[in-house]
Amino acid sequence: MFDSFVMSDSFVVSDSFPRRSEAYGPTDHIRCWVGFLFVSLASQVLAPAVTRFGFPKLTGYLIVGALSGPYILKLVSKEDVASLKYINTFALAYITTSAGAEMHIEELKALIKPIVAQTFAIMCVVFAVVTLVCKTLANTALSQFTNEMTDTQQWAVGLILGVLALTGSPAASVAVLREMRCKGTFTTTFMGCMVLSDIGVIIATPLCLSYARSQFTGTEFQPKTAGIVIATIIASILLGGLVGLTYMILMKFSRFVFHVF
Length: 261
Fold this sequence. Notes:
Layout lengths: L2 H5 L1 H5 L12 H21 L10 H12 L9 H6 L1 H17 L3 H5 L2 H25 L14 H16 L3 H11 L4 H33 L6 H37 L1
């Protein structure tokens, strides 16, 4: 139901939501959710039409989401996006869970070394190239907004753009792979690289943002933020393993009870 809402970058996927005005009342909330439901239903009806032209349904979701957003048809305004941020949070959790469900330990064991090597190489090359290109163009007419910045501030901008260049789209990847029913070594390697690169981006983003903040505002650079993120990731893995182990025990117990009774 929320495919078009999730798939359109101009709609919800951004983490920086516009603030609601103080006059945003209960009636606006109702109108907002009605509009969201309408867009969701419209995406389910209209998106399959693009498959006739050889495009995946994802393209239809993107088109419906972009048309319905605050810049064209305005069925959902910028203020409405702030009210629907809970949908974004739930959708991202669902997408990451779906991405994990596409990978199996037995398949990953034989591919773990190629996945790590490819991900590390891609991230290093892309990050370095984008950062250097941004710094090289920082004093040219192609990047006028950085012309008045100091060298360290220009490097900070380049680092942030380098991290942005590493970000992928789990939503798009999972949607296309599921629709096309892709299976095999290439698909498993691709999913592994995508998930691993996202972990790297999650760790690198607070570091680059903290460095940029220190250069533009004069605050102290805080590399410990990366440690907090790493600790959160480890805790999430442990919690996920505990939940999975509990589920396995319950499944075995239910089978035992079924056979006994």
